[in-house]
Structures are given as C-alpha cells and as structure tokens.
Amino acid sequence: MINFEEELKKFHPSLEVEDAEEAIYNQDLTDMADLLVKMIKESEEQESAN
Known about the structure:
By secondary structure, the chain is an all-alpha fold. About 75% of the residues lie in helices and about 0% in strands. It has three helices and no strands. The protein has helices at about 5-10, 15-25, 30-50. It is rod-shaped, with a radius of gyration of 23 Å.
C-alpha cells in the first residue's frame, strides 16, 4: 500500500513549473477592467474632439 506521508516527503516540484510560474506572474496581462478603462478614455477623447 502507498504511504502518502512518505511520498510527500520525497516530493520536489519541477524547476520547469517554478520557472513557468514566475514567467506567468511577471507578465503584465490586460484584464477586462483595463480594457473597460481604455474604452472609456477613448470614448471621452472622441466626444471632446467632436
């Protein structure tokens, strides 16, 4: 039978996963809030130009 406690003690995360995690978190990703703010600013600029 598998001793999960022993297996967990042996576990070491893959360096590839850690590297990928760091790369993902360091990216400046645009989310919906950023898109909405940009659209509102562009709309206001167009209204003020007219």
